[in-house]
Amino acid sequence: MSIEIDKLKCIGCGKCRDVCPGTLIALDSDRRAYIKYPRDCWGCTSCIKECPVYAIRFFLGADMGGMGSRMHTEMNGDILDWLIEKPDGETVKISVDTRESNKY
Amino acid sequence: MKTERIKTDILIIGGGTAGCYAAVTAAENSDKQILICEKAHVRRSGCLAAGVNALNAYITEGRTPRDYADYCMNDAAGIAREDLLLTMSERLNAVTERLEKEGLVILKDEHGKYVTRGNRNIKINGENIKPLLAGMAERQPNVSILNRVNIIDIDVADDRVNGAFGIGIENGTFYVIEASAVLIATGGAAGLYKPNDPGFSRHKMWYCPFNTGAGYAMGIRHGAEMTTFEMRFIALRCKDTIAPTGTLAQGVGAKQINSLGEVYEQKYGLTTSERVYGTVAENAAGRGPCFLQTKGITKEQEQSLLKAYLNMAPSQTLHWTESGELPSEYNVEIEGTEPYIVGGHTASGFWVDTDRATTIKGLYAAGDVSGGAPQKYVTGALAEGEIAALAMLNYLGNAVRGSISEESISAHEKEISVSLGNSGSPYTAEQLEEAMQTVMDSYAGGIKTNYRFSEKSLGIADRRIVQLQALSDRLHADDMQELMHIYELRERLTVCRTVIAHLKARHETRWHCFAENTDYPERDDERWNVFVNSRFVNGETEIILRRVSGS
To answer: Which residues of chain A make contact with B241, given a CB cutoff of 8 A?
Structure first.
């Protein structure tokens, strides 16, 4: 479980660095975010939800059965969209209405 | 190194669930100055970072706080504090309503009543619960928050707390904080034992991996009385993703089955520890792997599950989606996690009174760090934060602000500069952490031994942990973040020693897996219906046995 940050998309706002509950993200000399401690990620996705330019993806480690898909979120009004990009190019979108409770 | 001195009325160490709510309570009921020190950032720090998809401690209609306390007492096989459970349970519903007022989405029926899941749970959308709590604290005019300040020690003189010392992991500042009352709300301890997947995904664990037992360690170091560290918590989780199983068991009624398709849960019992034990036993008997029987649920149920997990454990939804092994078609494999010390689920922690006052004057504990009251979950941690905050305000009426001696300040400054200046250690904090986890896994009842240990194996564990403590003194840090990692390692090692001493002290097996002693495999109510408490004095853990009320 960890994340990857697209340096070309990153605008250097530092929001992901600020929010990480493990202080695992740092900014490089060009003020681009990078994950400094990739093995220490808990997979909470806090950074992904903060990123204003959707530059962060999270993925499951191969040791826990990961198959190379990348996930991120986009907030559209009250809807939190979760987008899973599979290695074959297919994207699965699951939309969660933040005004609605879980059924389970 | 720059030094900054701060004076405050109340210092709260840890801005998680209990800490934030305590700050809000103290602020709304007084004009006192309150300071939260948080080693990450309050917005998403602690156990609720990813969210939570149900509130597990709520008094549903027709039930009473006494019922909830009875349930907890039973699950702990009698080793819990009724007084603490009752004072907590009485507040569960009020804190829930407060959260709803602040914006938490709770499922209601057509009559406007909360929809319950079982007897104690209500359904929510808790993805944003931590930003919501943090926002409540941030809006209080008399609450200050120092993010990225890691408290390394409390100052105690004549059994009274005077404040704490911290390091600014981004600004490199050494903080000396004097306070009249201090609340420890640092959470429990993860990372003591080797995790399920110790490689790249080592932090894909049940509990917040950044909760290192700091509060326990500070209390132990200063001789506070601690309780029930032998009641470790082991969670039954979805394999690899370590995502919750309760959502499947209670949400869609999935039963635990072995590889032959037999439902085995009734055979071993339904307490938290028995559910784990049954799974371990079935595996050991060659009937593993074990599963939650989800095959056959409807596509509609499946869609709801995929969404529910996104609000708490998104890795499970990602796993289902990318593997194509959806729960309506495939049963979900389950496994036990490594053991944790966590007072919000089992009863480990500071020995406190009903005010959540510890045995050190002016020092309070709330949430996972506080002992004797298991099954707190989120609302119980909020309730304890509230209780402790009100008690501290009461205590402040007569207290004089603590003053930290110059000797204590320079001793802590020296400790920091030694670690920053050290050279010549062939090891890193990470290597010693892995060594510690291997020792605990092999000799103190980890996954490797099916959670079993003996007096002999614990003896080896203790010797090795003491050796690692000596090695940790010689570690070198390049910056404050590395220094924090060294302190986190030392905290874990301190907690490990107390865990080992407690496991050794209880000569019975009361809870399978949580404390499975091969020298004493039976439960012994005649002699062991008691609390095992301890105090660390002169380098040794002194065991104190205390009666369970009513026994």
So the answer is: 60, 64
